[in-house]
């Protein structure tokens, strides 16, 4: 597996030889967003007042590398987790975990979860067009991974009884649902992703940019555990003039050394930004991003308190989060959340970047 520390030594050695041509780059971005429950409750007890919602995610990436003229390369570590669920599933979970009364009805039970951890190396190149007014930067990342989950559970559950009709497709490196079929050896995975960045300087005061992450993302694993199957309310027995059903369970698993090869994919994420400089002191940003079914739109105001530095603040829809940060061309830091009390927060984000020009 690629080790960022080993790559760092290469980076530092290379930059000492070609000091006038290189810059060291470091970025870190970590965000978590939940619906239905605040982040802490969503992960733990699910015991806060229930809100409407059908998704949750966390995206985390750390990069350390160098840039030589238009070419960049370095080490990357990622942890991504996404979850889609039906609001009825959130209600079922809330009632179950808090020992509350169920209605006598079928609850829709739908969970779609993807999680992966990876470590690798990235390469990117800046193509400058139209006298450098437009910059197009494709980026390819090759990585290795030993930890992932890919699960779909879909069907219905009747009240709080062990009755229902569910279909399960579950592939994993560690069995966290059934806790019985974890492979004896961790799966081995290799994969790649493709990102695309576009920046257009329309005028000195107006710029737009686009970013597509994981436009292509695929990891091929070997030695993967799995549980696939269905539960149904058949067979049935006749009792007088009524029919009584019992659940029937049919599952195929990776028990007894039946691990398989599996191809895992993450869905793409899209960003579109507009930046406008009003005067020497004030500028505005409008950010939009699309993750799966969720669209986030944010407006920022920047105050440039000298030639290089700016402070900024903004508000984002959907997450209802406020952002506060400080940045210049070479260094930036920001935090964004909907509540400073993290026990009540549904969204939290920390971001920094460093460019050290040598």
Quick description:
With 358 residues, this protein is mainly beta.
Question: Which features would summarize this protein structure in a list?
Answer:
single chain, 358 residues, mainly beta, 18-stranded antiparallel sheet, two-stranded antiparallel ribbon, globular
Folded structure, characterized:
With 358 residues, the protein is mainly β. The chain has one domain. It has three helices and 20 strands. Strand 17 and strand 18 form a beta hairpin. The model is unreliable at 13-18 (pLDDT under 50).
- Range of helix content: under 10%
Low-confidence stretches: 13-18
Overall number of domains: 1
Radius of gyration, in angstroms, nearest whole number: 24 Å
Shape descriptor reads globular
Number of helices: 3
Number of β-strand runs = 20
Query: What structural category do the secondary elements indicate?
Result: mainly beta
Could you state the order of secondary-structure elements as H and E?
HEHEEHEEEEEEEEEEEEEEEEE
* Distance between the first and last residues' Cα: 30 Å
Strand content: over 45%
Mean model confidence by pLDDT: 90
- Major β-sheet profile: 18 strands, antiparallel
